[in-house]
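hey can u check if this looks right to u? its 47 residues, i copy pasted from the old doc so theres a chance i mangled smth
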Amino acid sequence: MEQKTKRIERMFDSLALYYKAIAPLNLPKLISEIISIAIRFSSDRTA
């Protein structure tokens, strides 16, 4: 159990580092991507 939590923590740490490195470069693209996915998702649900 202890090992599993440590692995998950490490995973989140590396994710946070990754996003800190990438976010300044890709933020506008990421936001538009999320918006388009959300639009597609909501139109799928209504259809």
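The helical segments are 2-46.
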